[in-house]
Amino acid sequence: MENKKEMRAWLDDMKLNHPLVIAGPCSAETEEQVLKIAHELKDTDVNYFRAGIWKPRTRPGMFEGVGALGLKWLQKVKAETGMKVCTEVANAAHVKLALEHDIDMLWIGARSTVSPFIMQEIADALEGTEKPVLIKNPVNPDLALWLGGIERIYSSGVKNIGAIHRGFSTYEKTKFRNNPEWQMAIEFQNKFPDIPLINDPSHITGKRDMVFDISQIALDLNFDGLMIETHHDPENAWSDASQQVTPNMLIQMMRDLKVKKEAD
Ligand code: PEP
Ligand code: MN
Predict the structure, then answer these.
(1) Mean pLDDT across the chain, nearest whole number?
(2) ipTM of the complex
């Protein structure tokens, strides 16, 4: 795909201090939980509040999200804190509902990016939206498949685009939940310098005590932002309990992370 400067416009137009920070719980659980976390993240460097409401769980029988009800909670977050909000969409119905509820940014999860059919369905539903759309890498380390997903979204007239590097599944056990394969992220940056690239250290590590180090590596590699799962009571989270950090941990991390000065 040719490089398209316009893809960065949404990020540049926000005149953000580098890097972009997206934070909030893996899953919206209750209205109280969502608002509590959002209020703790208000007035920090967090740019977007995240919460998953349709959860793509690997096995059935686990918590699969609160569904459309959570869109109302995200609207409350906007009204009460002034933060922008984002959530995951995994089919055309999700897209329609999220856009109707004026969710500020959408992301597409790793289990959706693997399927060209679902990516086309999502792309058609997004046609022409001005909202930024972030596309996570597919679960497997396949750069062409990731790019193909991005191209489908771009071709349906979505110009505000970003990519999220959340690591890749491996059969062998490693210290990571999803192996970062940094080489592929670097190849992505070199080939497509105009597509903002955001790192998701939470899903790469699977462990909160590794999130800082992976975030620092990503910033050293000039990533454009971080998506960090944040929960007021991580041990008791309904999904991804071992990787979420508390709002205080996140605030401390944002102070301690070293951001490289832009070269140009
Ligand atoms: C998430 O962001 O909570 C999520 C389900 O992520 P991924 O698609 O990277 O597994
Ligand atoms: Mn998660």
Answers:
(1) 95
(2) 0.99
